[in-house]
Amino acid sequence: FDDRDGWIWFDGKLVPWREANVHILTHAMHYASSVFEGQRAYGGRIFRLSDHSRRLRRSAELLGFEIPWSVEQIDAACNEVLKANGLEDAYLRPVAWRGSESMGVNPKGTEPHLAIACWHWGKYFDEEKQHRGIRLDIAPWRRPAPFTAPVESKAAGLYMIASLSKQHADARGYDDALMFDWRGQVAEATGANAFFVRDGKLITPTPDCFLNGITRQTVIELAQKRGIEVEERAVWPEELESLEQMFVTGSAAEVTLVQSAGPWNFEVGDLSRQLQRDYDDLVNARQA
Ligand code: PMP
């Protein structure tokens, strides 16, 4: 992925894609002192851009460092790099990390850095699957407790278990994995939040040990606009049998329908389809 044409915004300036490098003794590489974002641009407009920039700064703060650019400056940098690459429909990946100015577990003496890349990224799951429904494995790893890691941070370190679970699911022929949390409650997929439908109601796990995704919040608003009741609460696996529909949400995954999760099967139903369309209309700035 590093050998291609294009521009990456790196610590305040645009550098050629192939030259956006860091030193091997970068603190982040050894001690996971890195946070990132992921957002999509539709027709040149980055959806909920400031919310992503704000979360990036907050993620870094939770890891004890401050990004030396304001939300407005990060927003402007995102727009700049999108334009420089001549892209309108794209995925943007801001990443902030502690550098190689000092070495050791103690991050003292390291400097914060920020880079933003963007590229054309089609559907996270292929288009047909997004509508027909993906198949989820059950992850072998659980989301950690809030007293084990700063779970509200979109920290690279927390993606170790997501990446392991995704690799495990992929090797077993699944599209992704459903992760439970440290208590055994249903949490989320490896890169997207989970929603269920029963009796015309939307049910979604309380985000107390995983990201309260920006897409998740958007979908809750879209549901409420349609007068659909939304229950945010603990979801236990015993209940999955009785839940009728499932979908996952994320900036990359958008609204993706789910066919099955482990032994539990779901129907691809109207309510899920409706919210998928509403989200699509909203990000493309068409009126729902
Ligand atoms: N959970 C995880 C683990 C994720 O990686 C993402 C994607 N950022 C989400 C949830 C959804 O977050 P958002 O809707 O803000 O993209």
From TrEMBL:
Pathway: Amino-acid biosynthesis; L-leucine biosynthesis; L-leucine from 3-methyl-2-oxobutanoate: step 4/4; Amino-acid biosynthesis; L-isoleucine biosynthesis; L-isoleucine from 2-oxobutanoate: step 4/4; Amino-acid biosynthesis; L-valine biosynthesis; L-valine from pyruvate: step 4/4. It catalyses: L-leucine + 2-oxoglutarate = 4-methyl-2-oxopentanoate + L-glutamate; L-isoleucine + 2-oxoglutarate = (S)-3-methyl-2-oxopentanoate + L-glutamate; L-valine + 2-oxoglutarate = 3-methyl-2-oxobutanoate + L-glutamate. Its cofactor is pyridoxal 5'-phosphate. It is an enzyme of class 2 (transferase). Keywords: Amino-acid biosynthesis, Aminotransferase, Branched-chain amino acid biosynthesis, Pyridoxal phosphate, Transferase. Its EC number is 2.6.1.42. InterPro entries: Aminotrans_IV, Aminotrans_IV_CS, Aminotransferase-like, B_amino_transI, BCAT-like_C, BCAT-like_N, BCAT_family, Class-IV_PLP-Dep_Aminotrnsfr. The keyword Zinc does not apply. Signal peptide: none annotated. One of its GO terms (molecular function) is branched-chain-amino-acid transaminase activity. Acts on leucine, isoleucine and valine. Belongs to the class-IV pyridoxal-phosphate-dependent aminotransferase family. NCBIfam families: ilvE_I, PRK06606.1, PRK07544.1. This is Branched-chain-amino-acid aminotransferase. It comes from Sphingomonas arvum.
